[in-house]
Amino acid sequence: MESMPKAKSQLKFKIAVVGIGYVGLPVALLFAKAGYDVIGFDIDEDRVKRINRGQNPIKGREPGMNELVKSMAKKSNFHATTEASELSDRDIIMVAVQTPVEDDHQPRYEHMKAALKTIAQNMKKGALVIIESTIAPRTMEKVVKTTLEQENGFELNKHFMLANCPERVMPGRLIYNLTHYDRLVGAYSEKAGRIVKKLYEKVLGIKVDITDPLTAEIVKSGENTYRDVQIAFANEMALLCEAYGANVWKVRELLNKCPYRAMHLPGAGVGGHCIPKDGWLLVSGAVDDIKTKLIPLARQINDFMPRHMFDLLKSAVEDSGRDIEKAKIVILGYAYDANSDDTRMTPTDDLMKILDQHQIKCTIHDPYVAEYKSSLDKVLKNANAVVLMTAHDEYKKLKLSKLKKLLKGRQPILIDGRNLYNKEEAEKLGFVYKGVGNI
Length: 439
Ligand code: SAJ
Fold this sequence. Notes:
Blueprint: E1 14-18, H1 24-33, E2 37-41, H2 45-52, H3 65-73, E3 78-81, E4 92-95, H4 110-122, E5 127-131, H5 139-152, E6 160-164, H6 174-178, E7 183-187, H7 190-204, E8 208-211, H8 213-244, H9 248-255, H10 275-284, H11 294-319, E9 329-332, H12 347-357, E10 363-365, H13 376-380, E11 385-388, H14 393-396, H15 400-406, E12 413-416, H16 423-428, E13 432-435
The site of ligand SAJ has 19 residues, from helix 8.
């Protein structure tokens, strides 16, 4: 590394975060709060302006974010910018741009490549680039390293350093996770690994393990794929229990009493910005080498669950002698997870598409989503069927006796996608109750 300048003392590092969205912004602000000179670079002018005015552009409840954006906007050691040339004096450039997976289950790296080109065109010799986005295995090698080298003729470990340090954030707990979840850094050199470990441990107060970039890519996409496969097992157990006429929730409770078992929760589907996508990222890098079976199948099982909710609804409505096209149907929950307003890849979208294909109208309710926020009582009044998709507390508190009064007809229908209600109690009140795994 003879051409590389001597590493500065940690606090002297000038930092840039490229992509100040859901992940990048809290990272930039936490490093600025620790006293570093930080710029947040983004191509979205409006987002940059809002941040510099101290306004938090991230939707939803993120404890601590509003205050952090407001306080750091006033500080001289942080600002957001759309000016790429400001990257030229940065010692460390973190990249947190989105890496979507399209319908063909292949990752799209347009955003990543554009960000890398901008960085390569502006970064100085000796800079350390750190990829925080979740990427498919081999992306560091085939996309990141090559784009940075091709764009400016720099040679890795001669003119710049490179590492990946995938984030482990969650909606609603951005700052908490960044400052409590240990992380992994995959580094192309000893020196890069040491710098990232020291910097992140110091600023975020977490522990950082060092490994190689490929291992870090596989661990990150793998940890979420692990969860997706676990959920798929729970969902298949639910479908099995329905076929046997058993109650999957009783099965799960007793099964988990066996040591080293932790059967996950069956449900109406798997949404969010990471779990539905990371299994595809994990396998996409090796499609030419191995035809994986379990991981794509787990994705299929979880993606089937909104369809299963439709099947339960259709059979219940028909069993009650009604015409599904004429039934007044209410869907409770649009957000992908309980008590969240995050709607990314929500299973409710899939259910709505299926209802639409069958020209079946429905009303959506969700206390956390502006478009569907309304009086629950009003929405439920005189409905014939309720489909519970998201386990929001407001629905958990809903008394079945009250629900029965609001709904129309002797035998209103209740399709329970998150085991929120008690089947026996519902049937005693006259409901036609069908729960996932307990029909
Ligand atoms: N879900 C089930 N059954 C389960 C668990 C979840 O159907 O047993 C569904 C949820 O309803 C939701 C989806 O899966 O629709 C995803 O839920 P999630 O609890 O996995 O929440 P996420 O998407 O916020 O996942 C994040 C991930 N964290 C990071 O990427 C850092 C994941 O790795 C965490 O394990 C998860 O949070 C968590 O533990 O809450």
